Amino acid sequence: MTFPMIKIEGVRHAYKTPSGPLPVLDGLDVTVEEGGFVAVVGPSGCGKSTLTKLVAGLMKPDQGMVMVHGEKVTGPRSTVGMAFQNPVMLEWRTIIENVMLPLEIVSTKMSKSEQKDRANYLLELVGLEGFGDKRPSELSGGMRQRASLCRAIVHKPDILILDEPFGALDAFTREDLWQTMHKVKDEEPFTGVLITHDLRESIFLADQVVVLSQRPARTQYVLDVPNIGPRDLDHLYTPEAAEMLNILRHQIEVAQGRAAA
Amino acid sequence: MAYVPDMKTRSTGGSVAKFLTSRAFLAPIIAMIVFVALWEFLVWVNNWPDYVMASPSDLPAAYAEYWGLFVKYGWQTLWRTVVGLVLAVIVGLFLGMIMGFSRLMRDALYPLLVGFNAIPKATVVPIVALLFVGAHDFNTILIAFMISFFPIAVSVSIGLSTLEPEYRDILRALGASQGTIFWKIALPKTLPEFFGALKVAVTLAFIGTNLMEIVSPHGRGLGALFDSGKTNSDYPLMFAVLIALAILGIVLYYVVVALEKIFAGWADRQPG
C-alpha cells in the first residue's frame, strides 16, 4: 500500500495564552501526494504557520493526526527543509557557508569539498553563481531569499515547507523567484507545502490550493490546478487562470465572512 | 553599537608611513595634543600652584623620579584588572545564558542583579577589605569583577532572549540539539552585544581595581601610588598616576576592539 507523503487529518490545536486557550486549528484536512505541491491560503492570522510547524514536527497537535510517509510525526525529522519570509541568513557566515549549514547537522559523513560542490551547484541553479563568498549583508533581499531556498533544499529533503518566502519581495523579484521555483523543482524534486497570501502565486506554483477558514481554521475549499506542464507567466493571464483566481477570491471573502458561501 | 574607530586604513594601507599620516592615527593624536595644551594653558593663566593643580609640564619629572614604581605598580594594577575582567566575562556569560534561555530565571534573577549593581562599590570596598583582611590580590580582583560583570550578563541575556524564533527553527527542524543551536547560532549572534558590553566592563574593572588599591592599607598597584602621592602632597605624582591609569585603560580598550574585529568583525558595516 502506498501512502501519501503528507496526510493531515482532523487536526485541532489551541495555544495556551494567559486569557485561556486560543484555538487556531479546528478540523484541518490536507493531503499531499509524493511530488505534489500544495499552496495554503487563508485570512491572516488563521493558523497557516501553525500548520507548517506541525508538518515540520516542531509542534504536536492537541488532536488529530499528522502523518508523513504513513508514519505519525512525533518530532523533528532531518528530511524537512524550511524557508521563511525572513531569509534568516547567519550574517557571520558567507553565503555558501549559510547554504552548507544543514549539511553540517544531517550529513556529517559528507566531506567538506562534497558539501561545497553541492552548495555551489544549488547556488548556480538559482542564479547566484559567483556570490558564494559574499556576506549576506552584501546581497539584495531577493538574492538572500534565493540563498535561503538553497539552504532549505541542500540536504535533499523530501518535504519543502515554504512559509510566505516571497511575501516581502517586490512584485518583479517575486515573479522571477516563482520561475526559479519551477526550475528548482524540475532539477531537485520535492513535495512542497507553500503558505502564501498571493493567489496568483498559489496557482502559478502549486497543483492544489487549499483555502482555510478564519481562525480557528478548518479546510474550507480545495482547488485543483490543472497540470499544464511547464508554466510561464503568460499562463497567469489566460481565461482559465482568471476563473481560478475568481473562485479563490470568492472563497477568501467567504472565509473572511464578507460573502455568503 | 559602541564607537569603533575606523581602522580600515591600517589594514588596507600596508606601509607604516601611510598609517602614520592617516586620519585614523592623526585625529586622536591631535586631539590629545590640544587637550594637553589646554590643560597647561589653564594652569598657567590661573597661576595655579602645584598643590592645587599640576600641569602637564610637571609630569615628566614625576615619571622620571618614580619610573621603577610606575612599571611595578602599573603591572600589578593591569594583571588584577585583567583577571577580574576574565572572571566577569565567565560569570557574566554564564548568568546571561541562564537568563537568556529561561524566562523563570530571568524573572527571578533580574531584581537581585539590579539591586546588587545599584549598590555603590565604594561602600563594598571596606567590607571586603575587612572580610578578607590582608588578601590584597584577591580583594582587588573581587571588586574589579563585581563592578564589571553586570553589563556583560545583561547584554548576553538580552541577545539570547531576543533571538528570532526562525533562527532556532531552521536548526530545530533538522533535529539539532540545544547545544548545537547555541554553538552555531545563538552564541555568534550575541557576540556584537557581548563586545559592546565588554568595552563598558573594561573601564569599570579599572575603577574597581583602583577603588580597592586606594582604600586598602599598605596596598599595591597604581592606586596605592596615588595614595602615597596624596599623603606626601606630591601633586605631580598624583596626576602622573591618573594619566598612567588613563593610558592603561586605553590600551585595554583597544585590545577589546581588536578582539571584536577578529570575532565579530562581520557586524561592522561600512557606511555608504
From TrEMBL, chain A:
One of its GO terms (molecular function) is ATP binding. Residues 6-239 form the ABC transporter domain. It holds the Pfam family ABC_tran. InterPro entries: AAA+_ATPase, ABC_transporter-like_ATP-bd, ABC_transporter-like_CS, ABC_transporter_ATP-bind. Keywords: ATP-binding, Nucleotide-binding, Transport. Belongs to the ABC transporter superfamily. This is ABC transporter ATP-binding protein. It comes from Maritimibacter dapengensis.
TrEMBL record, chain B:
It comes from the Bacteria. The keyword Transferase does not apply. Residues 74-256 form the ABC transmembrane type-1 domain. InterPro entries: MetI-like. It is found in: Cell membrane. Its main location: membrane. It holds the Pfam family BPD_transp_1. Keywords: Cell membrane, Membrane, Transmembrane, Transmembrane helix, Transport. It is a multi-pass membrane protein. The chain crosses the membrane at residues 25-45, 78-101, 108-135, 141-163, 194-215, 235-259. The keyword Zinc does not apply. Belongs to the binding-protein-dependent transport system permease family. This is ABC transporter permease. It comes from Maritimibacter dapengensis. The lineage of its organism: Bacteria, Pseudomonadati, Pseudomonadota, Alphaproteobacteria, Rhodobacterales.
